[in-house]
Please model this.
Amino acid sequence: MIIVMKNNATQQDFKAVEDLIVSKGLKPHLSQGAQASIIGVIGDKTRLAVENIEMMEGVDKVVPVMESYKLAGRAFHPEGSVVDVGGVKIGGKELVVMAGPCAVESEAQIMKAAEAVAESGAKFLRGGAYKPRTSPYAFQGLEDEGYRLLRKAGDAFGLKVVSEVVSQNEIAIASECCDMIQVGARNMQNFRLLRALGQCGRPVLLKRGIASTIVEWLDAAEYILSEGNPNVVLCERGIRTFETATRNTLDLGAVAVVKERSHLPVIVDPSHAAGKMRYVEPLALAAVAAGADGLIVEVHPQPAQALSDAAQQLNPEQFSGLMQHCAAVAQAVGRTL
Ligand code: PEP
Ligand code: MN
Model:
């Protein structure tokens, strides 16, 4: 449930309500916004009598929350969240673009990629160090060295760094080298990993599972939030459908739905949705128009030489064009890039 406080509620009124919640063994979650101040209640709500709370000083009303996700829901946090990653803000008026190769392959490759994406206006460098490959015989990534190279390239060109962990084992080194940690589609429901990331102290980019519903995705975010990490950004990357012309079906409806149901920022990955280079830009433009807070795009200095996802990676020139065109769409929908 959520407890909506009156506009003139005093500090004491807030404290009395929070004390009552704690005394029942539940957890209060305060959200003070310009529109309304709300105290969310987490735990078994049958322990609280609604009528008693509604009689307390400063309380406007008590509203039940039916969704399984609470901290991720708009009800608990009516204003959109802005996630600050080392000074780069995701969820504000300005769109944030993350770009870089599918995988870090060598120092020269990641340096060239970083230089190119920084020049076109990306704020983050992406690149896989531990790759979740469908085949065990495919290139698996440079592992820890990949994280180190990514950090080096990010620092050289003033970019934040985001990279994926595929298990709890990488969290320590990834937290050391990366500004943001990515959970890949294949791990969206790896609940132990999500809980561990809730305690890692780094912002998390949570990709939507390959065949996950929006509610399952928000429940996955809840795992991270419930461990005390409020810095979660969602990423729509396409879902599996009957359609095979694209690698995945980009669910742009999900962007609108997530914006309504959750306060968390949501970005879009047009690359893993498209699967083919020539579809990446149209999907990116549509994502910006649909209200995404940013993009994550695969860019490789020489896509034809890429060790993974060669068909969908843009070259630096294509990426530069995408950025210019996305800036025009951003402006049309009241955002900047
Ligand atoms: C990636 O972004 O590197 C990746 C593997 O994407 P996904 O988890 O969405 O398949
Ligand atoms: Mn990839």
